[in-house]
Amino acid sequence: MKVCSVSYLNSIPFVYGLENSGIKVDLSLEIPSVCGQKLLNNEVDIALLPIAVIPNLDYADVVSPYCISSDGAVQTVCLFSEVPLEQIDSILLDYHSRTSNALVQLLSKHFWKIQPKFKTSDVDFESNIKGNTAGVIIGDRAYNYIDNFPYVYDLSEEWKKFSGLPFVFACWVSNKILDSSFKKAFSSALQFGISNLDLALSEKSDAFDTQIDKMKYLTEVINYDLTDEKRKSIQMFLDLIS
Fold first, then answer.
1. Which of 58, 109, 194, 211 has the highest Cβ tally under 10 A?
2. What local confidence, expressed as pLDDT, does residue 210 receive?
3. What domains does the chain contain, in order, with CATH numbers?
């Protein structure tokens, strides 16, 4: 079974579990936008899928009760700006992302009540965040910009203010019907990684060059259980971007 996970710090427990629980999968790691594209292109069978991609699939089965989510500030998905919201003319969208880009557009329209121009980006776009041009930066690298800008809007925190709900960035989705026994084994592998977070971090954290307190981030900021409340949040998000 071909599986694609996200190549960020927050997926360490999942990757560790899939590599060490005994389940047989062909695992690849990509930035979120590529992870989603691989599932769309049928290059993989299961992906840690950015939730904004779900409507683009002909068939989408959420195969596990685990996800990447946060209840309030997430610290690694932010809108950075030199000016306050009402003075922003344009927003650069992070090429790593689909869900966070959709989220900033949703918040602009429904919560912040602003109408900036949204622009695609490429490598090293961060240097163009200046003046009245703001930018979304996601992932571990976003944390490095927290002190670089006078205005930082944590998109998960803003979603919580807007909806009262936690935000789900990605969940495990298959583009085909899978055997129930495999889905059970797959979820058990993910649970194995979550339950052995200290071992996962000791083995893999050196690969991530970030100032984040990694254990605190993965235990106090990131939530992994896909609860009913989070499923409600996913549906609300998808309804608003449709």
1. 194
2. 76
3. 2-70+167-241 (3.40.190.10), 77-163 (3.40.190.10)
